[in-house]
Amino acid sequence: MQIENDEVIQVCKSCGFPGNEKYCGRCGQPYQTKRISIPGLLHDIFHLFTHLDRGFGYTLKMLVLAPGHIQREYIEGERSRHQKPFAMFLICATVAALIRYWIQLALINYYHVGNVSEATFLNKYMVIFFIVLLPLHVLITYALFIKSGYNFAEIAVFVLYTLAFVFLIAACIALLRFIWPRMDTVYVELPFLLIYNTITFINFFHRQPRWIVALRSIVIIVAVFFLIQVAEDFVIRLIS
Question: CB of 34 within 8 A of CB of 40?
Answer without folding.
Answer: yes
